[in-house]
């Protein structure tokens, strides 16, 4: 079983308004990310809320996912990550972490990461563009359960990846736009433009000769 944990607990201090609820393609940004995850090979999608928990939960009310709340979201991303981990079923084999402000990812990219995990023998799978690592990232649960549950502060799982380069396999993507996130009004303006283009050329995120649906 593959679980996907979407981190949507932050207060968006830099943005100055609730970025996960910003409109994008007729829906909220968090809905777009969650819908992409629900369309992929992920078996269970878990959304972690915190700040604006009621509004965020309501925004994805029509999707088939689970919602858990992190009451200590102010302490940093690691707490939200572990809140999601605590809700995992015993049957989980691997877990993928997704960010609520990166709606340029595609079901095809998520599926390619899962397929790479099943065939390559490595326990951390990341997308990359020109040797730059991005999100989402998949972790084998048995290999990294202890390390992930020991995380502290606002660095998330980046340190686990940095400390274990020999365990990482990469899935190349054909555009750095897939990694774009939203922290400022200028970022949001750019995201709206990118998302509009994405709607015209759906799901061609990995470096292949065909689209992955």
Write the layout of secondary structure elements.
Layout lengths: L1 E7 L14 E2 L2 E2 H10 L5 E6 L3 H7 L6 E4 L7 H10 L7 E6 L7 H14 L3 E6 L2 E2 L3 E4 H9 L8 H6 L4 E5 L12 H16 L13
Question: Could you please describe the fold and organization of this structure?
Answer:
This protein has 213 residues and is of the alpha/beta class. The chain has a single domain, classed as Alpha-Beta Complex (Spore Coat Polysaccharide Biosynthesis Protein SpsA, Chain A). It is 34% helix and 21% strand. The protein is built from 7 helices and 10 strands. The strands form 2 sheets. Strands 1, 4, 5, 6, 7, 8, 9 and 10 form an 8-stranded mixed sheet that branches. Strands 2-3 form a two-stranded antiparallel ribbon. Strand 4, helix 2 and strand 5 form a beta-alpha-beta unit. The radius of gyration is 16 Å and the shape is globular.
Shape: globular
Q: What is the helix fraction of residues, given as a range?
A: 25-40%
Sequence of secondary-structure elements:
EEEHEHEHEHEEEHHEH
- CATH hierarchy class name: Alpha Beta
Tell me the count of domains.
Answer: 1
Q: Quick one: CATH superfamily?
A: Spore Coat Polysaccharide Biosynthesis Protein SpsA, Chain A
**What is the terminal separation in angstroms?**
20 Å
């Amino acid at each position: 079983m593959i679980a996907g944990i979407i981190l949507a607990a932050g207060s968006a201090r830099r943005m100055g308004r609730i970025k996960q609820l910003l409109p994008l393609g007729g829906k909220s940004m968090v809905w777009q990310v969650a819908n992409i995850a629900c369309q992929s090979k992920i078996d269970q999608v878990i959304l972690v809320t915190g700040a604006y928990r009621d509004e965020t939960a309501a925004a994805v009310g029509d999707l088939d996912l689970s919602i858990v709340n992190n009451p200590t979201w102010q302490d940093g991303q690691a707490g939200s990550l572990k809140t999601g981990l605590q809700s995992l079923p015993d049957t989980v084999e691997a877990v993928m972490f997704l960010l609520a402000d990166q709606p340029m990812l595609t079901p095809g990219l998520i599926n390619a990461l899962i397929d790479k995990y099943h065939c390559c023998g490595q326990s951390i799978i990341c997308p990359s563009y020109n040797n730059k690592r991005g999100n989402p990232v998949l972790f084998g649960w048995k290999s990294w359960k202890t390390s992930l549950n020991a995380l502290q502060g606002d660095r998330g799982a980046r340190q686990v990846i940095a400390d274990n380069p020999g365990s990482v396999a990469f899935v190349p993507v054909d555009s750095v736009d897939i990694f774009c996130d939203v922290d400022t009004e200028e970022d949001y303006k750019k995201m709206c433009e990118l998302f509009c283009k994405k709607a015209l050329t759906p799901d061609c995120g990995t470096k292949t000769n065909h689209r992955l649906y």
